[in-house]
Amino acid sequence: MLSHEKIWGAIDRLAEQHQLTASGLARRAGLDPTSFNKSKRTGPDGRQRWPSTESIAKVLEATGASIDQFMSFFGTGSSGNGMGESGMGESGVAAPAGNIPLLGFAQAGAGGFFDDGGFPAGQGWDVVEFPASPSRSPHVYALEVQGDSMMPLYRDGDVLIVEPGAQVRRGDRVAVKTRDGEVMAKILGRHSARSIDLLSLNPEHANRSLDMSEVDWIARIIWASQ
User: Fold this and answer.
1) Bridge partners of 100?
2) Closest by Cα among 68, 69, 145, 138 to 99
């Protein structure tokens, strides 16, 4: 059942997934930065205030989230790092259904497993099964984290579900493959037609700035297992 608490909670969790405060989410959506403040959720007379459908539409457009993704936050918890214990993902998306291709990061950098657009191709892929989902892109695949370079967010053995071709925005968690064969998971910073800034998940590893000519492909991380 839709409730005042659940819909505001979903907005808060959407903000968390994009590493924003409620005010930052409102600002990104072109709204008054105080629109989602907790003090605005109840009127002076104690009556509940609900976000407008226009505000929600603007938030979804600003973050690239679908209404299904937004609704998946209702009644779910948050671990504070973008991955709930129930298996909800980077955008609150339930894991894609059925078997999808699986590859280790080291293999992904070796070449021969992707086409020019970063979509799965060739032979040698393993498969991994995920729970049912109302919708699923036919292009999603899984990358298995190897090593500790993505700690503390992603650990050795974690599985990341990525969607090549999906629109990426500043603040999204992304997998990137360089033309030199390096594969990494980062947070997308500034993104222009000529270059991208990639923020490191591990404070012991430096942020990266790459010319787009150095980038083979970039894919949005939509789900992660723990």
Assistant:
1) 128
2) 138
Q: Which amino acid is at 188?
A: L
The burial of 33, by beta-carbon neighbours within 10 Å (0-12 exposed, 13-18 middle, 19 or more buried), is given as: middle
| DSSP helix/strand/coil, 109 | helix
137-168, pLDDT tens digit by residue?
A: 667 888 888 877 777 778 888 888 888 888 88
Written as one letter, the residue type at 114 is F
Tokens describing residue 67: 């209404």
Nearest to 170 by CA among 197, 184, 189, 186: 189
pLDDT, one tens digit per residue, over 179-213 is 888 888 889 999 888 999 999 888 888 899 999 99
In the chain, the amino acid numbered 130 is: F
- Judge whether 25 and 16 are in contact, CB under 8 Å: no
State the DSSP string of 158-179. Answer: -EEEEEET----TT-EEEEEET
Q: Which domains, ranges and CATH numbers included, belong to the chain?
A: 4-71 (1.10.260.40), 98-224 (2.10.109.10)
Contact 14, 20 (CB under 8 A): no
- Whether the CB-CB separation of 13 and 73 falls below 8 Å is answered with yes
Q: Report the C-alpha gap between 193 and 212 in whole angstroms.
A: 7
